[in-house]
Amino acid sequence: GNSVTQMEGPVTLSEEAFLTINCTYTATGYPSLFWYVQYPGEGLQLLLKATKADDKGSNKGFEATYRKETTSFHLEKGSVQVSDSAVYFCALSPSQGGSEKLVFGKGTKLTVNP
Amino acid sequence: SAVISQKPSRDICQRGTSLTIQCQVDSQVTMMFWYRQQPGQSLTLIATANQGSEATYESGFVIDKFPISRPNLTFSTLTVSNMSPEDSSIYLCSVEDRRVGPNEKLFFGSGTQLSVL
Question: Residue A41: which region, alpha, beta or left (left: phi > 0; alpha: psi -120 to 50)?
């Protein structure tokens, strides 16, 4: 079946540090891949997405590249800020067409200290 | 994008009681979904709330335990019935807003944190 495995947290970094949150997936066919972010007290928000192999999603300085050969979609940011403190969820949609029935990872809590 | 109001934001309930969670959207949306996030676990889809018909439940979830209403295109409720401590989770409403681009159309409420004693 479809599944997502992401890096266990929590992750604590200093401001301006480099961030990587690993995400690997198992899926049949050609899934779409997503990173969602949940800031304290808010709902999940789509951070970035990629719908096919070698696509790079990017937003707010975050990037992730859809690697079919390694079934990975690792989230990176070159210089984190305190405002990036949140929980990050990797997710997949079994098809390229939609995001309705998402399969989520467990989430990784990131804390950035000044 | 759709704005979702979900309430209550949190509640502490006694075993054997029921809690109804409300989800209100600021625009008409086709699809509404209910997810559960158990402690230390990922989000799991409970069901799709269908307007004017019975909800579609995922494997492992049944209507008697999680009755869902969807009276119109902007509102849905999820009831957690006959609660036990194992039901302690965060419950999230999400909606599909087709006014935005493909693969970007799923939006989430801020969740209801439920603790069952």
Answer: left
Each residue's pLDDT tens digit, A25-82: 999 878 889 999 989 878 788 899 998 899 999 999 999 999 999 999 999 999 999 9
Burial status of residue A9 (CB atoms within 10 A of its CB: 0-12, 13-18, 19 or more): middle
DSSP A61: T
Angstrom CA distances, A83 to A13, A76, A99, stand at: 12, 15, 27
Q: Could you tell me which residues are beta bridge partners of residue A46? A: A36
Q: What percent of chain A is predicted at pLDDT more than 70?
A: 95
Radius of gyration of chain B (CA): 14
Q: What residues in chain B have their Cβ under 8 A from chain A's Cβ atoms?
A: 4, 6, 31, 33, 37, 40-45, 48, 92, 94, 96, 102-111
Contacts of A53 (CB under 8 A, 6+ apart): A66, A67, A68
Distance from CA of A45 to the nearest CA of B (A): 7
From the centroid of its chain, how far is CA B78?
A: 5
Task: Encode pLDDT of A95-112 as tens digits.
Answer: 655 545 788 999 999 999
Please enumerate in sequence order all residues whose Cβ is within 8 A of that of A65, keeping only pairs 6 or more positions apart, or say none: A50, A54, A55, A56, A57, A73, A74
